[in-house]
Amino acid sequence: MPALVRYTLATALHSQRYVAPMLLFAGLLGVLTVNGNGPLPPAYAASAGALFVCSTWLTTSLLAMDAPSQRAIVAANVGGTAKTLIGTVVAALLSCLGLLALGLLFPLWVGAYDPLPADFLLGAEVQLTGALAGAAVGVLCSRLVFRRQGYALVTALTLVLALLFIKGLPPMNLLLTELATTPDSFALIPEATAQLILSIALLVLSATVAHAVTLYRD
Question: What's the predicted TM-score (pTM) here?
Answer without folding.
Answer: 0.89
